[in-house]
Amino acid sequence: MMMTQTDMSDLKDAIVVQVEATLEDVQTLYRQIHQHPELPFEEHETSKRLATALETLGYEVTRGVGGTGVVALLRNGEGPTVMLRGDMDALPIKEDTGLEFASTRTAETESGTVPLMHACGHDLHSSCVVGAAAVMARLKEQWSGTLMLICQPAEEIFGGAKAMLDDGLYVRFARPDVILGQHNMPALAGTIGHRPGSTMAACTNLAVTIHGVGGHGSMPAQAVDPVVIAAHAVTRLQNIVSREVPPEETVVVTVGKLQAGTQANIIPHSAELEINIRSFDNALHRQVMEAIERIIRAECEAGRSPRPRSSAYSTRLSPYITTRKRSSGCAGLTASTSVRPTSTPCRASTAARTSRFSATPRTAASAARIFPMFTGLSGRPLQSAGPRPLASASRRKCATWRCPTRLTTSRATRSRCAPASRPWWPEH
C-alpha cells in the first residue's frame, strides 16, 4: 500500500520520537565500547555488550559467528529481509583526545605491547546498529518483513566478513534482499551523505618484503641495502597516480608502513612495505596493481636484490619480493572470496559502507592466480651480490618507467634509450 504524504510525515515524527528516546542509551553504549577497544578477532567484550543489548530488545541473537561476530534477527511477518551492518574492531593507535572516556588500553601482539583506540569509528557504527534496532523494534506496527543485524569482527584486517560467510551466514540465518551500511566521516554532525552509484572505494592492502644482503654499515659495498631499494620504490610508487592514472579517475596509493633494520650501523637483510590501494573501477584497480608489481620488481633488480634461497611460504612468489595480499570487493558481505583484488564490480549501493575480507593465499595454486607473472621463479638458489654494469642498471630503470624503446650503451658506457626511428632519446 502506497503511503500518503501525511502517512510519511507521521512516520518521520514517530521515528524522531523513538530516536530521542533511545539516544541516551546509545551514547552510553558508544562510550563503553570506545573506552574498551579490542583488536580484530579479539572483540570478546565488545560482542558480548552488543549481543546483550540486542537480546534486551527482543531479537533472536546468535553469538560467535565467524569467531566473535553477532547476528540478530527480528521477524515481523511477511516481507523482504533487510540487513544492517556495523563493525566492532579497533586499531593499534594511542589515543590522545583528552576525552573522559578515552581509551587507555593496550594489547600484546607479535610486535610487542601496542596501545588501542577506536580511531576508525567502529564504536559508533556498532552502537548505532543497536540504536536502529531499538527504533525498529518499537515501530513494528509500521513495517513488515525480517530485520537482520550484523556486528562484524575484524574489518580492519579484511577478515571478519569472510569468516562470517564461511560460517554459513546466509545459510544458517537469512539471505538479505537489501544490505545497508554506514560510515562516519569528519563532516557536519547530524548530516547524512548519500549519492547514486559508487560511494565507497574498493580497497587492497599489499604487503611486500624486499630482500637484501645484510652487512655492517661501514662496508655497504659488501651488502645489498634493502632500505635504499625500498626508499626508491616508495618514491616511484607516488608517480602511479600522477603519471599513469587518467586525471578524471579517483585512485589512492598509500605506503602506510616502511620498516627495516634494528640500529644505525647494521644494513638489514630485508625491508617491509605495506601499501594501500583504493579505487572505484575494477580495470583501473588491476592496472594500478600491475604498476606496483612492475615498479617494485624493477627497483629490486636495479638495486641488486638477491633471489631467496627457498620458498618457505606459498606466498613467496618472486625471486625478489615476498607478497601477502588482503583485498576487498564493493559488494559488502556478498563479495566473492576470490583472491583477486576486486573480485566483484565496484558499484556499492547508495551511502553503503562496504565490507572487507581477507583473501590471503594459502596454496601455490592460489598464489599463482595473484601474480601469474611470478610463477615458477621462486625457489632458485641465492646469487652473489656482485657489481652490475651501469647499462644493466639503466635498463632496469627503463623497465620501471615503461620505456617503449630498446636500451643501447655507448663506448663511454653512458646509457641511453635509442629507438630505431629517432637519433637520440634523453638519458633516464
SSE layout:
Elements lengths: L4 H31 L8 H13 L3 E6 L3 E8 L4 E7 L18 E4 L2 E4 L6 H17 L6 E8 L7 H7 L2 H5 L4 E3 L21 E10 L3 E2 L9 H12 L1 H6 L6 E10 L5 E2 L2 E10 L2 H21 L18 E7 L36 H7 L19 H11 L6 E3 L5 E3 L11
Parallel strand pairs: 3-6, 3-7
Antiparallel strand pairs: 1-2, 2-6, 4-5, 8-12, 8-13, 9-11, 10-12, 14-15
Helix pairs in contact: 1-3, 6-8, 8-10
Could you give a short description of this structure?
The chain has 428 residues and is of the alpha+beta class. It has helices at 5-35, 44-56, 122-138, 160-166, 169-173, 226-237, 239-244, 282-302, 364-370, 390-400, and strands spanning 60-65, 69-76, 81-87, 106-109, 112-115, 145-152, 178-180, 202-211, 215-216, 251-260, 266-267, 270-279, 321-327, 407-409, 415-417. The protein has two domains: 18-180, Zn peptidases (Aminopeptidase); 202-349 and 356-387, 2-Layer Sandwich (Alpha-Beta Plaits), CATH 3.30.70.360.
Low-confidence residue ranges: 308-392, 406-428
What level of helicity do the residues show? 25-40%
Shape: elongated
SS element count, helices: 10
CATH level 3 topology of the largest domain: Alpha-Beta Plaits
Rounded mean pLDDT score = 78
What is the assembly state of the chains in this entry? single chain
Main β sheet profile: 5 strands, mixed
Class inferred from helices and paired strands: alpha+beta
Strand order of the largest sheet: 1-2-6-3-7
Level-1 CATH class name of the largest domain: Alpha Beta
Helices and strands, in order, run as HHEEEEEHEHHEEEHHEEEHEHHEE
Strand content: 15-25%
CATH architecture of the largest domain: 2-Layer Sandwich
| Total domain units | 2
Radius of gyration: 26 Å
Give the N-to-C terminal Cα separation: 70 Å
Count of individual beta strands: 15
